[in-house]
Thioredoxin
Amino acid sequence: MATVELTDDTFEQTIKDNDIVLVDFWASWCGPCRQFAPVFEASSEDNPEVVHGKIDTEAQQRIAGAAGVTAIPTLMAFREGVLVFNQAGALPGPQLKQVVDAVKDLDMDEVRAQIAAQQDGQPQS
């Protein structure tokens, strides 16, 4: 699956409707963003079951602001609607593959239990 451009109108629904969504926050003037683009595109071809979305931070400032993006490129990964990875900086292909594999391998019941424990103010086990 090729990368998809996400907008105010499609961002939340894309996160809700898909098991795994990677989001690349970028801008056309950003050199590291341009370097990361082909790596992200290759990952989308290698992992067709994972939605690879791109958000142009210039055109979609509301989403970038709501997501707390302060540097670009920023990569976020959502699994079953839950933000499970958030990191600024361009990743080389092997590191992006590690992120994708780690997100695929997450035990979401455990992740939800950890989130619930944090919200209850309980220490993580």
Notes: Helices lie at 11-17, 31-46, 61-66, 93-105, 108-119.
